[in-house]
Amino acid sequence: MIAAAFGCDGLDPAVVLAAFGLDGPATSMTAVGGAWSNRVFRLEANGGVFAVKQMRNPWRIPRWEKWLAEAWAFELCGIEAGIAAPQPVANPVTGGCLAWVRLGGTQPVPVRVHRWVSGIPLGAGVVDLQIARWAGQALATMHGLQVRPLDRSLFPLPNTDNADRWPELTKAAYRSGADWAGLMAAAGPSVSVIAELVKSDGHRPGEEVMSHGDVDQKNIVATRRGPVLCDWDVAHPVVPRRELADVAMSMGCWRDIGVAREVVRAYRAHGGDDAQIAPTDLGQPMMSGVDWIAMNADRALGQWPASAAEVAQARSLLPGLLAALPGEVASALRITALLRI
Ligand SMILES: Nc1ncnc2c1ncn2[C@@H]1O[C@H](COP(=O)(O)OP(=O)(O)O)[C@@H](O)[C@H]1O
Ligand SMILES: [Mg+2]
Predict the structure, then answer these.
(1) Interhelix angle for 166-175 vs 181-201, to 10°?
(2) Where are the domains positioned within the chain?
(3) Second-level CATH architecture of 129-338
(4) CA of 153 to the centre of ligand 2 (A)
């Protein structure tokens, strides 16, 4: 059956199945919501169900395939260590995670495949305590592996680039008449505080270990057998305390401190480091949030290549992301007391 019949913008399921050595025929292939950066499809074929992801390198990361190879190696380590994750399907020819498949008549595009996990993706809200404990344990397990990247230079260093260009971005928002321009201006002082936190803690290469790097509600599927962690593609070196602080606060949506503490408690109960968490630990994670806001601002202002859907998504996300920043910074500055157990 041709891809157009499945409505998958040229991605032909038969070609995908062949590239991964899987048996057909495909009986359905449907786009999955909740993919922020890439295009994800649910593919049914010959009794099997798969998640097919077309990789898009939305951050335009140089040497992203090498980064992905390190992330893939870490994904396998994480699964081996017992973290519940979708079972990946390797490219049978290369043993790597990617296969390049032709999209219609155009250039080949990179695709990954996993077994589909049957469950319900978590919503964006505060997680329950059981998920909070699971997240703390998963982080402790990943950090405990002490995996170092083969090539640290593939991954970004802590930086304040988007904080530095915030005034210019704010002006561009005003010039274009964006209704969120005022929120950009109001968020300016918070962005400056975040930049100061990043600079004062700097780069700590000696403390870094590989981790998933995006443990967040959007990448967790609740199944009958417990939570499953998807989307290991941006695994990268982290300072464990920083990732712990970030995940703890994110699981509680920065307002439910009981949930955040439960993440930390479980982390420590499973052998995670018990060093006190300081405001500076949230500098780098919060700067990643600023990077995400800046990317959306660039998309909304036409300064970054984006589809019409991405521009619409950027416009709808920006007001909420910007309005949340001051409160998050206020919590970050009190984090030692908030997360003290
Ligand atoms: N193997 C899988 N089984 C079930 N659902 C999946 C699977 N892989 C991805 N998903 C769903 O698709 C969504 C998007 O996939 P993800 O890998 O997170 O894409 P992106 O890189 O764009 O964030 C996930 O949030 C999850 O809900
Ligand atoms: Mg994801």
Answers:
(1) 170
(2) 3-119, 129-338
(3) Alpha-Beta Complex (3.90)
(4) 24
Give the C-alpha separation, 162 to 313, whole Å. 20
* Domain 3-119, classified CATH 3.30.200.20, yes or no: yes
- 12-54 pLDDT tens trace: 899 999 999 999 899 999 999 766 678 899 999 999 999 999 9
Q: pLDDT digit string (tens) for 181-215? A: 999 999 999 999 999 999 999 999 999 999 999 99
> How many Å lie between the centroid of ligand 2 and the Cα of residue 215?
9
Chain segment 272-326, per-residue pLDDT in tens? 999 899 999 999 999 999 999 999 999 999 998 888 988 999 999 999 999 999 9
CB atoms within 10 A of CB 35: 16
Query: What ranges make up the beta strands (E) of the chain?
Result: 26-31, 39-45, 48-54, 88-89, 99-102, 108-115, 120-121, 209-211, 220-223, 226-229, 236-238
Nearest atom in ligand 1 to 234's CA: 21
Which residue has the CA at smallest separation from atom 17 of ligand 1? Answer: 231
